[in-house]
Amino acid sequence: MTGPVIYGRVALIGLGLIASSMAHAMRAGGLAGEIVGYAKSPETRAVARGLFCDRVTDTAAEAVAGADLVVLCVPVGAMGAIAAEIGPHLKPGAVVTDVGSVKQAVVDVVAPHLPPGVHFIPGHPLAGTEYSGPRSGFATLFQNRWWLLTPLDGTDPAEIARLRHLLEAMGANVDEMDVARHDLVLAVVSHTPHLIAYTMVGVADHMRRVSSQEVIKYSASGFRDFTRIAASDPTMWRDVFLTNKDAVLDVLGRFAEELFSLQRAIRMGDGDQLHAYFTRTREIRRGIIEAGQDTAAPDFGRAPVQPKEG
Amino acid sequence: MTGPVIYGRVALIGLGLIASSMAHAMRAGGLAGEIVGYAKSPETRAVARGLFCDRVTDTAAEAVAGADLVVLCVPVGAMGAIAAEIGPHLKPGAVVTDVGSVKQAVVDVVAPHLPPGVHFIPGHPLAGTEYSGPRSGFATLFQNRWWLLTPLDGTDPAEIARLRHLLEAMGANVDEMDVARHDLVLAVVSHTPHLIAYTMVGVADHMRRVSSQEVIKYSASGFRDFTRIAASDPTMWRDVFLTNKDAVLDVLGRFAEELFSLQRAIRMGDGDQLHAYFTRTREIRRGIIEAGQDTAAPDFGRAPVQPKEG
Question: Three-state DSSP class for B21?
């Protein structure tokens, strides 16, 4: 093994998009001495064995034995059971992190199962694609993406720094954040937009008067962005909404109020209200481009779409 | 002038993103003998004169005099007044088309002003960016994009074919559609998604507990797609919602019902309903990728975003 090894042995629990991308990135950078994996499904384990893990075990307990870093990459709803299973087998001084999209719920169910002397540093990479599973990973998934850490009070700063070092070596930009604030900010920038996108795609699917063929054919106009968002992993998102319930319901309530206000403006023909609203939202977009979070290319940076037969 | 000229003189009325892109595309392909432009604003006329028009006039009436093709590129709400102004000055046998996002409202206000012998063929290019104005155009905007025509009964098929020829020469895929169906399909795939995106961005903007700095910083997760949609031209979109009111209110009503059903599932903790819904919407996305309407690249085909300081 050459390269700047940061953790001697890394155990990945759950082997989907995030774990497989981490493994590819760690291998590409020589960041881990050994990568051990575990997943519930035998098929997933077989893929991981051939594709990105040095060793794959048949139980989570075996996977974490002797590991310096344990990364929980299972859906948020499965975190508690996995933590209970691995808790007694963790090496003293090991670091445990996770990649769940919700943080308070993970802290609540994971922390009680971890023995003293194990460092728990909850985390959340803001990276993903519409694909899932062990074949979907790639080494550059985290390049220039945010990876939020929500360390609890009293966590050893040296261990936080070491984990940051690994994440940055995989290309991520790391930020630290309070657990509750994380869940609220993510409800606004990610969770609620996903629910809304799912809903709009569902509406289109249900409208009998508009054939799904037409919806697909003419989807370039706004709707396509919604379908991309709405294609993410159903299990992961179910767990997000069930575990970040309060923040999501709060934002959804505000959304419904705003939407009804605009709907009323349309019904009443109040063009001034609509114009003022649309002008204001445009400013936020400008801010995002100035912050370098997206390209301003006129084709939105996408590769040209293929011509279709009319 | 070399190249396959399709119309001897083309008049563009309104000189924003669509008109300037048409002018660039027609010049690149040598598709028009002369391109004459008119816009309400003197600044816009000055830009167009230097950038993409052979001639710019101070009135719409002058611009259409002698034109073989007149393209109305003003917001839907301004179509009627412009049609009244140019009607008496149109050359017998001229073709008039428009690029409005709503078709019934345009037909209603434009058709009555056109003299017999003029061919009116309403149209709608499904192409755009978040930018507007005469400097925002580029020759490839219509490449592999749909351009819908909604010809009225009795329109000369030879004139429809000639207009199709021009649009295809600019790179578009042309489809013909009934006026009412156009307005409903677009309400589903474009108009309502835009209103929803505007709303979500507005909610984020209003939430005092989430600083707009954070919203912008972590916008990569779903929200960024909304802000892109919500950055489109406010005047154009105001007119869309005012003039396609019935279809948009219909779709919005369905959207609210669906959203409340999912919101209730979250509140009740009904994971099965959420999972089943999210699995179904994923299928539509698969259809769009198979139809070639979007790339399946894991980074969504976007250029990598720039690293930021944490």
Answer: helix
Using one digit for the tens of pLDDT, what is the confidence trace for A40-50? 999 999 999 99
Across the interface, of B210, B223, B282, the residue whose CB is closest to A184 is B210
**C-alpha closest to that of B44 among B27, B60, B62, B56:** B56
SS3 label, residue B123: strand
Is this complex scored with an ipTM above 0.90? no
Tokens of A172: 């991520």
Domain with CATH 1.10.3660.10 in chain A: 181-269
* Separation CA A38–CA B56 (nearest Å): 69
Residue A95: strand pairing partners:
A69, A119
- Considering only residues B34 and A221, tell me which one the structure prediction assigns the higher pLDDT: B34
Q: A38 forms bridges with which residues in the sheet?
A: A13
First CA to last CA distance, chain A: 55
- In percent, the amount of chain A with pLDDT more than 90 equals 73
- Superfamily per CATH, domain A7-177: NAD(P)-binding Rossmann-like Domain (3.40.50.720)
- CB distance B39 to B18 below 8 Å: no
Fold of B181-290: 6-phosphogluconate dehydrogenase C-terminal fold (1.10.3660)
CA distance A175 to A140: 19
Where is A241: in which H helix or E strand?
A: helix A234-243
Which sign, positive or negative, has the C-alpha torsion B40, B43, B44, B49?
positive
Higher pLDDT residue, B289 or A195? Answer: A195
Decide if pLDDT at A133 tops 80.
yes
Query: Do A219 and B288 count as a contact with CB atoms less than 8 A apart?
Result: yes
% helix, strand, coil for chain A, step of 5: 50, 10, 35
Judge whether A229 and B269 are in contact, CB under 8 Å.
no
**Where in chain B are all domains bearing CATH 3.40.50.720?**
7-177
Whole-Å CA distances, B123 to A170, A299, A309, B132: 49, 21, 19, 19
Structure tokens at A287: 């801010």
Residue among A284, A289, A302, A309 with most chain B CBs within 10 A, to mutate: A284
* Residues of B with Cβ-Cβ distance to A205 under 8 angstroms: 280-281, 284
Q: Chain B: nearest CA to A92, how far in angstroms?
A: 31
* Cα–Cα distance, B8 to B6 (Å, whole number): 7
Q: Given an 8 Å threshold on Cβ–Cβ distance, is A308 in contact with B298?
A: no
Instruction: Match domain A181-269 to its CATH number in 2.40.50.140, 1.10.3660.10, 3.40.50.1970, 3.40.50.720.
Output: 1.10.3660.10
Burial of A43 by CB count in 10 Å (0-12 exposed, 13-18 middle, 19+ buried)? exposed
Residue B3 contacts by C-beta under 8 Å, 6 or more apart in sequence?
A: B29, B30, B31
B239: pLDDT strictly greater than 70? yes
